[in-house]
Design a protein that fits this description.
The complex is a heterotrimer of chains A (386), B (182) and C (291). Chain A has 386 residues and is an alpha/beta fold. Chain A contains 14 helices and 16 strands. By secondary structure, chain B is of the alpha/beta class. Chain B has one domain: Pyruvate-ferredoxin Oxidoreductase, domain 3. In chain B, helix 5 packs parallel to helix 7. The longest helix of chain B has 20 residues. Classes of the chains: A alpha/beta (386), B alpha/beta (182), C alpha/beta (291).
């Protein structure tokens, strides 16, 4: 289905990643946003607060991030596409409700504009320290999807994709920006509405009495309905059966949670997205994401100029992780270089799928700024020397 | 055109960030180039010297920050003192006549200066100083097409002030062309 | 004692309650003598009497013994996280204003962990009904002290007795902006039913506190007898004071219980305020929010 033209601000703009995210959400059909101000994500909700009254959307600034992250789920069950937006400390507060959305299979979008932590850290400066929290931050086991834009244009594009994936898999989707991408201003092209593909909610179409709100189709995704349609649905964070009723047994737990995890794991081929540059035939592959994927380019170019065969694999979905591709490359390359603005998060995933078949070199960076490309170059050269 | 880094410095309220937007818009929307702007957030944004950093390139921009700007525009003495050492070897330094006294000016730099405050005052609004500077920069650097800059000015300034700002831009531009001819 | 003047003529025909329950989920989890089931009975009758289209009524609970109510009601029902029923309900209501949204939860859930949300929903006058069952203790987790536990009462985490000042809930609700505030006990089934019905039909943030015995934990630990003893206590110590100043209705350990309808006033709801304000500020540019 195509986007509703009412919200789409078709044209070319010079805007930052936060504003582009807001426009992406609007284009995706999001009409419910609950948020709480926090640097460096605030511009997203500021833009939404300005735009929504003009296009019939509901923005509410809640009393905290805990409230924001569950108000959106109320919004979804009332039939809206909904999003909340935050940064580090707020992201930590939202974790319980990320788990609730995963458990109740509530399609919604969480945006985290990452800043340097832990705790209050460096509120105005970039980091990529929430990548593992995005995957594992709520208690218990579950699976989510997380996307990592590296430019304002991609912030727009991937926000739409986040909403589409949320609907397709009935899952919370996380958009993991970083302060640099959030505040960086570049050209963003917003296409005409009829060129924006939107995934509608997968509403139940069968006979009313046959609805089982948590009984999955072949793709492991159950159908949606909304409150007020006369289904008398029950939605609970407790372990539940296909009707949604609490079923507090190990068997019910096994069945439900296995499906929640498999829903993403077994559909990973369709979800995973990455971009490759000269990876075929490379001896060294740089694996990067977000702003770091751009900072790595001068380093890669320098190494190539010196004759090294360097490929670049940029993660667009951090979660699910492109496990197959990394495993495949691990048998042909000498090593991987993983720069990230933390002390080693996604590198663990690379190591897990390389499983000792090639070298893996982390280029850590504490946050507050991006890497010096020289450090990434040095790691490439180090792995290249073998 | 290769990667060109630009830094604009001044004090809060001078329209430094707006100038960055104008350059970025002109390059990336009206001149078929790429542009990336980074604003200084944090304490720097609140101090007396603030800056906008823009990279302009014919090719897609990878590294978004500037390291040694080839072009620097400064509109305050403090910004001059603080930022001018960063200008690349052989770069261009553009200053405002009254607000900046370029002490111990580096020999390797090409220096252009304009009485933008006086011009802005002649136009009746001192606040268009930054737009005069943009016109001047356009003329002396030739980095971005003048029509692209004019379009960007028009869409970036407050509604109702387009004519005033357009005049300001043209005055700065003409002054710059005059210097180049001389 | 003030004479009771309210119209409480609501018939209580037998078995009608079954129509409002998910019978397939019974028996429920509540202990013998627990007052929560009584309040559910009142709620069902109030729904019936309200004439509301049940398809458009949604119930939201948090966590705890009362938090299980949502799961037993044959309505669109949401059993959310601890303390967060109100912000979920806020989202539900604002996203679809056609829904009548009821929050049904306990004292600990709504006023300890959820206290912040409670005060803000009341302040905003979000159009919802909050039914709070106050048993003065955390039941589900085994009898810990709550922000409602009276001074002197003991709890598993206040083994020598509670010394913290408890909330006066009607006063809290009123001062934060609730447009309807009432308190009853599970002894006062007709009054409570009427209050819930009125609250359901009230436009804005309406709040009904119902005191209910927890014989397993609160009563036993405090040697107050069984559920029936607590009901007798409610009967003998309650004083109906409709319109009472909520400042004066705080509760003490086994002291006098002031019950009644304390607040009933008109105020624009969150959505009414928003639509009116933006219509004035933005004129034709504004797209009125219809949900």
């Amino acid at each position: 289905m195509k986007a509703d033209p009412k919200g789409v601000m078709t044209g070319a703009y010079f805007i930052d990643g936060d504003h582009a995210c807001a426009e992406g959400a609007i284009a995706a059909g999001c009409r419910f946003v609950a948020g709480y101000p926090i640097t460096p994500s605030t511009e997203v909700v500021e833009r939404i607060a300005e735009r929504f009254p003009l296009i019939g959307g509901m923005f509410i600034q809640m009393e905290d991030e805990i409230a924001s992250s569950i108000a959106i789920q109320g919004g979804v069950w009332a039939g809206k596409k909904a999003m909340t937006v935050t940064s580090g400390p707020g992201f930590s507060l939202m974790m319980e409700h990320l788990g609730l959305a995963a458990m109740t299979e509530t399609p919604c979008v969480f945006v985290d504009v990452q800043r340097a932590g832990p705790s209050t850290g460096l509120p105005t400066l970039p980091a990529q320290g929430d990548m593992m929290q995005a995957r594992w931050g709520s208690h218990g086991d579950y699976a989510i999807i997380a996307l990592c834009p590296n430019s304002p244009q991609e912030s727009f594009n991937l926000t739409i994709k986040a909403f589409n994936l949320a609907e397709q898999y009935r899952v919370p989707v996380l958009l993991m920006l970083d302060e640099c991408v959030g505040h960086m201003t570049e050209r963003v092209v917003i296409p005409p509405a009829d060129q924006i593909e939107i995934t509608p909610r997968r509403y139940w179409e069968g006979p009313k009495e046959d609805l089982l709100l948590f009984k999955a189709d072949k793709d492991l995704v159950p159908p949606m309905v909304k409150a007020g349609d006369g289904y008398n649905i029950h939605v609970t964070g407790l372990t539940h059966d296909e009707r949604g009723y609490p079923d507090m047994t190990p068997a019910a737990q096994e069945k439900l949670v296995r499906r929640l995890v498999d829903k993403i794991r077994l559909n990973a081929d369709a979800i995973v997205e990455y971009k490759e540059d000269q990876v075929e035939g490379a001896e060294i592959v740089v694996v990067s994401y977000g702003i770091t994927s751009r900072v790595a380019i001068p380093a890669i170019e320098q190494a190539r100029a010196e004759g090294m065969k360097v490929g670049h694999l940029r993660l667009i979905t951090a979660w699910p992780f492109p496990t197959k591709r990394i495993r495949e490359l691990s048998t042909t390359v000498r090593g991987f270089v993983v720069p990230e603005i933390n002390f080693g998060q996604m590198v663990r995933e690379v190591e897990r799928w390389v499983a000792g078949r090639a070298r893996v070199r982390l280029v850590p960076h504490g946050g507050g700024s991006v890497h010096d490309p020289k450090d990434i170059y040095a790691a490439i050269a180090y792995v290249g020397k073998g | 055109m290769a990667r060109t880094e630009i830094k604009i410095g001044g004090f809060g309220g001078q329209g430094i960030i707006l100038s960055g937007y104008i350059i970025g818009r002109a390059a990336s929307i009206y001149d078929a180039k790429f542009a990336t702007m980074i604003q200084a957030f944090g304490p720097e944004a609140r101090g007396s010297a603030c800056s906008a950093q823009i990279v302009v390139d014919d090719h897609e921009i990878a590294y978004p920050y500037i390291t040694s700007p080839r072009i620097m525009v400064v509109m305050s003495q403090e910004a001059y003192t603080k930022f001018s050492p960063e200008v690349a070897e052989g770069g261009i330094l553009i200053t405002e006549d009254e607000l900046v006294k370029p002490h111990s000016l580096r020999k390797d730099l090409t220096h252009y200066s304009i009485p933008a405050t006086r011009i802005a005052e002649e136009l009746g609004r001192k606040m268009v100083l930054n737009i005069v500077m943009m016109g001047f920069m356009t003329a002396v650097t030739g980095l971005i097409g003048v029509e692209a800059m004019r379009s960007a000015v028009k869409v970036s300034v407050p509604r109702g002030t387009e004519m005033l700002n357009s005049n300001a831009f043209n005055r700065g531009y003409e002054f710059g062309l005059g210097l180049k001819r001389a | 004692m003030t004479e009771e003047t309210m119209d409480t003529d609501i018939s209580l025909p037998t078995n009608r309650v079954e129509d409002f329950l998910r019978m397939e989920r019974l028996p429920h989890i509540w202990c013998p003598g627990c007052g929560i089931g009584t309040t559910v009975n009142c709620f069902a009758h109030a729904l019936d009497a309200s004439g509301l289209d049940l398809k458009k009524v949604a119930i939201v609970s948090g966590i705890g013994c009362t938090g299980r109510v949502a799961g037993y009601m044959k309505l669109d029902s949401f059993h959310t996280t601890h303390g967060r029923a109100i912000p979920f309900a806020t989202g539900l209501k604002l996203a679809n204003p056609e829904l009548k949204v009821v929050v049904y939860s306990g004292d600990g859930d709504l006023t300890a962990i959820g206290g912040n949300h409670f005060i803000h929903a009341a302040r905003r006058n979000v159009n919802m009904t909050v039914i709070l069952i106050n048993n003065f203790i955390y039941g589900m987790t085994g009898g810990q002290v709550a922000p409602t536990t009276p001074i002197g009462a003991t709890a598993s985490t206040a083994p020598y007795g509670n010394f913290e000042e408890p909330f006066n809930l009607p006063y809290l609700a009123e001062s934060c902006g609730a447009v309807y505030v009432a308190r009853w006990t599970s002894f006062h089934v007709r009054h409570a039913t009427k209050a819930i019905k009125d609250a359901l039909l009230k436009k804005g943030f309406s709040f009904v506190e119902i005191m209910a015995p927890c014989p397993t934990l609160y009563s036993r630990r405090n040697r107050l007898g069984d559920g029936l003893d607590q009901m007798k206590f409610y009967r003998d110590n309650s004083e109906i004071q409709n319109g009472a100043d909520t400042k004066t209705v705080g509760l003490s350990f086994q002291g006098k219980i002031v019950v009644g309808k304390f607040v009933d006033k008109e105020k624009p709801t969150y959505l009414e305020s928003m639509n009116a304000f933006y219509a004035q500020k933005l004129g034709d540019q504004f797209t009125p929010y219809k949900g």
